[in-house]
Amino acid sequence: MKNVAIIGGTGYGAIELIRLLHAHKHLQVKKIISHSQFGERITSVYPHLTGFVEEPMEKLEIDNLIEEVDIIFFATPAGVAKDLIPKFADSTVQCIDLSGDLRLRSKEQYEQWYGKEAAPQEILNQAVYGLSEIYQEQVKEAKIISNPGCFPTSALLGLIPALEHNVITPNHIVIDGKTAVSGAGRTPTATTHFSETNENITPYKIGKHQHIPEIDQTLSEIAQETIHTTFTTHLIPMTRGLICTMYAELARDISTEEVIDQYQTYYVNHPFVRIKEIGIFPTTKDVYGSNFCDIGLHVDERTNQLIITSAIDNLVKGAAGQAIQNANLMNGWEETEGLDAIPIFP
Amino acid sequence: MKNVAIIGGTGYGAIELIRLLHAHKHLQVKKIISHSQFGERITSVYPHLTGFVEEPMEKLEIDNLIEEVDIIFFATPAGVAKDLIPKFADSTVQCIDLSGDLRLRSKEQYEQWYGKEAAPQEILNQAVYGLSEIYQEQVKEAKIISNPGCFPTSALLGLIPALEHNVITPNHIVIDGKTAVSGAGRTPTATTHFSETNENITPYKIGKHQHIPEIDQTLSEIAQETIHTTFTTHLIPMTRGLICTMYAELARDISTEEVIDQYQTYYVNHPFVRIKEIGIFPTTKDVYGSNFCDIGLHVDERTNQLIITSAIDNLVKGAAGQAIQNANLMNGWEETEGLDAIPIFP
Amino acid sequence: MKNVAIIGGTGYGAIELIRLLHAHKHLQVKKIISHSQFGERITSVYPHLTGFVEEPMEKLEIDNLIEEVDIIFFATPAGVAKDLIPKFADSTVQCIDLSGDLRLRSKEQYEQWYGKEAAPQEILNQAVYGLSEIYQEQVKEAKIISNPGCFPTSALLGLIPALEHNVITPNHIVIDGKTAVSGAGRTPTATTHFSETNENITPYKIGKHQHIPEIDQTLSEIAQETIHTTFTTHLIPMTRGLICTMYAELARDISTEEVIDQYQTYYVNHPFVRIKEIGIFPTTKDVYGSNFCDIGLHVDERTNQLIITSAIDNLVKGAAGQAIQNANLMNGWEETEGLDAIPIFP
Amino acid sequence: MKNVAIIGGTGYGAIELIRLLHAHKHLQVKKIISHSQFGERITSVYPHLTGFVEEPMEKLEIDNLIEEVDIIFFATPAGVAKDLIPKFADSTVQCIDLSGDLRLRSKEQYEQWYGKEAAPQEILNQAVYGLSEIYQEQVKEAKIISNPGCFPTSALLGLIPALEHNVITPNHIVIDGKTAVSGAGRTPTATTHFSETNENITPYKIGKHQHIPEIDQTLSEIAQETIHTTFTTHLIPMTRGLICTMYAELARDISTEEVIDQYQTYYVNHPFVRIKEIGIFPTTKDVYGSNFCDIGLHVDERTNQLIITSAIDNLVKGAAGQAIQNANLMNGWEETEGLDAIPIFP
Predict the structure, then answer these.
(1) What positions constitute the catalytic site (chains A, B, C, D) (predicted)?
(2) Is the ipTM of this complex over 0.85?
(3) Mind listing the domains of chain B with CATH numbers?
C-alpha cells in the first residue's frame, strides 16, 4: 500500500480523487492538505464524505510529506504546483499535477496564456504530459506528471488516430467544446450562479481559452508540423460531463466504417476508450462518474469532413481519474485499478 | 381586428402562438383546431391557459375557416400543411406554415430529407420563405409563408451578413447547433425522457438533419453558388433556447471591430437582431421568451476564422414569434406588434 | 403616465419590475438607482435588457426623486428601505417596499428574526401589508406598502379562506415550502453554486426563516388568536417558481368539492387566484412568469386533514408582480394592468 | 461466487443492480431476463454498459433459472413478481422483489391501492419486509424479500427511532415527499417529458400514492396501534435523489441535541444511516449514487414539533442498493459488501 497526499483539499479535484482512491487496492489517502482550511474536517465542507474521511486537513509541510507519502496529487489552482514541485525534486515522491502549470513546454506560451510566471525549465523538462493512452510508455518512466486538461483530453483522444493515420488534414480543424459547470471549480462566481447558468448555454473565453495552446502543442507534435485549431467552449447547464464535437477535412476517400475500424484498432489495448458503432454517438451521460472516453465518428460525404464527438466525465477522465490512471502506469499496476466502475446511469 | 385560426392546437407551437397573440393589437385567436382532441378544452392539456382560452378545440372544417378567419397558422407535424394549404388557394386567407413542408424549393430534396411526398409545385412556387429580416420585401407581398426552422433562423441570420459582404469564403462553413429540448415537441419519447436528457448532452441526427438542406438552399441563393455546410445538432438539458456556433474562413483581413460594425449596419433597421459588442457573446437566456436573435462575433487571428454565435428562443424567433412577425409584415403593421416584450431573466 | 424609480437596480427584483412595467400603460421607469453601480448601464450587468434600458443607473438623491417621480419601488436588501422611506414621509411619493423591512408590526420581532434595528414606529404604523387579495381595501388607501414575502404570499393565499371559514383548526398547521433558486438573489454563494445546487434538494433555515413570523402574524390577525405554524423551506434545482404544500386539521366534515367551492367563491373577484378542479394540483410551471397564484385542494379523509398546494412565480406574485398589482390598486387602475400576460409554457 | 438473475432487464432497477453488483465480491450477474427485448444486447438500450455486459438478454425460463442461479432480483412492474415468485417456492433460489407486490400484508389493501389481484397468502406470509436496518434479524432468515419502496425507506428510517422511543405521538404525522424523476421509471410519459418536468415542481398522486399503506403498515406495527399518516409526493426536476420532510408532535419535552443523541444510538450499528449534527440537514446530493440514508433533526419549540429530513438515492437505498444489502444479510456476508462507495459529488 502506497501513501497518497492530496494538496488542494477543498476543490472538486481533491474530492474526486478521494472518491476514486477509496476503491484503490494499492493507494490510500494519508494526508489532505488545505492552505485555507487546515485544521478543519473536510466533512464540514463536504458532508457526503462523512464516515470516510474524519481526520482534519493539514497544513503543507514539505519535509513531513517527503517522509510520509509516496505520491502527491496537486489539485491546486494555476500557479501553485510549479512552485511546490521543485521542492520534491531530490526526493522519491511521485508528483502528479492536475493544474495547468506544467502542460506547456514553452515558458513564453505559459506566461502568455496563463498570465503567470512559468515553472523552472528543469521541471518542465522532467514533466511527462500524462495523456495516458498516447504517452503510455513515457508515463511509465515518469516521476513528474502533468495531467492533461479536460478539453484537451477529449479533443486529443478524438483527433489523434485520424491525424496519425493521415485520414484528416491538419488545417481547418474546428473543436467545439461543451462542458458541465463543475469544470469551473468550487468558488461561486457570476458564471456559476445557478439562476443564470441554469436554462442557459453560455459561450465563454472565445479565442482565449488556455486549453488552446495545450491542444495545439500535442497535435503539432503528433503531426510534426505546426497546427492551429479553432477552439471554442460553451458552458452547459449540468454538473458533470464534457463533449467535444470536432470537424476536420478528410485527406482522402474513406468511409465511416473504415474510420471506425481504424479507431478501434488504434485503441484496442486501451480499455478506457470506447469507439461507438456506426450511427451511434456518445452522450456525456454514457460516461458519467467513470474514466471512459467514448468516441463517435461520421464521414460527412456532402462536405468531405470527418465529424468526431468525444465524451468524457470532466472530473474523472478529464482530471482525477486520468491522474490515477497515470499513477497506475507509473507504478506498474493494472491500468484500470481503482477505475473499473460502471458509469452511473441514469 | 383580424381573426386567427391555429391548426395543431395541442403542440408547443400552438400554445406559444396563443401566448404571444394575447398581446397583439390586431389579431385575435378565433379558432383552435385539433385533429386528435377536438371537443376538449385546451386547458385540460395546458392548465396554464386557464382563464385565457376556455372554448373547446374544434375539428378542421375548411369552408368554415374560409368564412370566419383571416389568417391561419399551421402548427402541424411534417406532412400535414402541404395537403391543407392548397385548399385555401382560392380564398383570401393568409397561410403561415410553421412546419417544414414548404421550406425546400426542390420537391426531390423534400422527399429525400423528409421521407414524404412533397407539396404541389404551384404551392411551393407561391410560398415565401419567411426569414423576416432577409426576405422582408417578399414577405410583405406574400399570401403563403413558409416559416423557417429554428436552426436555420439562427444560423442564417448569423452567417448572411458576412457572406453577402464577402468577409468569409463559402467553403468549410461549420455550424455547431445546440438546442433545448422543447424543439422536439410534446410527444414523450426516449430522447425527451427527463431522467436521460437531464445532466446530458446528446448529439443527434449527425449528418441527416432536415435543416441542412434548408440552410444550404438559402446560403446558396445569397452567395449565388452552391454551398454545403457541415451542420450538427446537440440536445442540451434545458427547455428553451438555441444557439449556433459557426466557423467560417475569412476571405480577407478584417478586425473583429470591423465585422461587428458591418453587422450592426446590416441589421440597423431590424429591431429583433442585436449585435453584441466586442468580447461579449450572447447566451440563450438573453433572449428567453422573446423574438430576439442576439449575435456575437470574433475574428480568430490564429486560424483566420470568423467565429459567430447566434442565440434565439427556439419557440419564439425559431417558430411562433417569427410567424407573427411575418403576419405583421404581410398586413402592414408594426413589425414588433405583439412581440415587444423584454426577455424573461433570470 | 406616472414616473417610477426603482432603488436597488442590479437585483432580480429590479429587473423583474423593469420587465413587467414595460407593458404598463400608466407607469414608466424613469430612474434606476444603484448604490454599487451608478454610472454604469444596466445592460452591462443584464445584456437581455439591450435596447430597452440604455440610460446609466443613478446615485440616490432624495430631493431629486421627490421632484421627478411618483412611485418608488424599493428592491433593496433587508435594512435599507426602513432608513430611506422616512425621508419621503412629507412628500406625495408612493413607496412600495419589496424587502422585509416593514412586514413585521412588532419591532421586537423584526429585530429578533432579521438581526437588525427595526423601522421607526410611525412608518410601521403607516405601512399597509400588501397581500393584494386580502387587504385590497387598505391597499387602495395606502401611501406606503410593505410588499409580502414570496413564501407568505403563497402560504397565506392558500390558507386564509379555510381559516376564515373555520374549515380548519388553527393548530398543527404545517407549511412545507419549496422554492426555486432565484429567491436567493443575485449574489453568488455556496448555496447558489450551480454544481452543488443542481441535481439536489437542499432544506435550509429550518426553524429560523424570517418568513415564519410574517405568516404567523397575518394568520393570527385573520383568526383573531395566536397561531404558530410549522414552516420549512427547501431549495429546488430550478430558477423560478415556488410552491407551498400545506396541511391543516379539518374543523368539521367537509368534502373536497365543498372546499373547492368555498375557495372559488372567496376569490371570485380576484383574477390572479385560480382554484383548480378536483384532482388537479397546480405545478409551478403553470404560473411561470405570471402574477397568478394557483391553488389545489384535497380533503384527506383517512387523516382528517386539508391538503393545500399553492403555486406562484416567486419573482412575480412573490415580488415584483404583486408590487405592481398594489401600485394599480393604490392608483385606481385596473388591478391587472401590466400583469395580464399568459404564463410562459413550456 | 453466487449467481444472480435479474428479471426486468431494461428498467432502471435492473441497470442499477448491474452497476452495483459489478463491485460485489460474492455475487455475479449470470442472466438478465427481459420479457420485451430478449435476444438483444442490453447495450443497445444502455450504451453506458458497453464492455461490461455483452451477452444478449434472455427469455424467462423457470427451470433453467432454478438450475443456474442462486438469487433472483425481480425488477419488474407491479403485478409480475407475485405470479412468478410462487414458481420458485420449492427451490432453494432466494427471491428479492423490488416491486410492491409483496409489501402489503393485507390482500385487500393491495387490491385497493394497486388495483390488481394480490399475491397468494402463503407467499405473503413467507415474505420478509426488507427494511434492512429495522428488520435485520428477520431478513437474515428470509428466503423471500419484499424490498421496500423508496418513499417508505426514507420515511420509516426517519420516523421509527422517535416513534419507538415515544418521542413523538403517532397522530398528525405529516410526510412531505420530494423525489427525482427516475423514480417514475424508463417509460416516457407526459409527466416525465423533459420540457414540462424541467423547471417545475409537480405534486402528484395526492392522497392516493401506493406508498401510503406501506408506510402506515410498518409504523402501526412498530407503535402497536393503528397509525394513519398524511403523505404527499412531489416530482422535482432532477434525475436521482429523494427526501422526506416529516413533522410529528412531540410527546414530551426534549431538545434537538437529545433527539440527535437518541438517533445516533439507535443506528450505531447500522453503517448506512448517518445522523447529522445539530443545525445540519442532509441534501439529496450528499447520498448520490450511494446506499446511505442521511437524517437531519430539529425540535421546533415554537410549535412543539419534531422536524425530520431523511435523504436517500431513490435508486440505491430506495431500490437496488437495499436489495443487495438484504442479499448480503441473507447470506451472512458483510452488510456493506458491494455498497461501500463514496457518494458522487458534485
Answers:
(1) 150
(2) yes
(3) 2-126 (3.40.50.720), 151-314 (3.30.360.10)
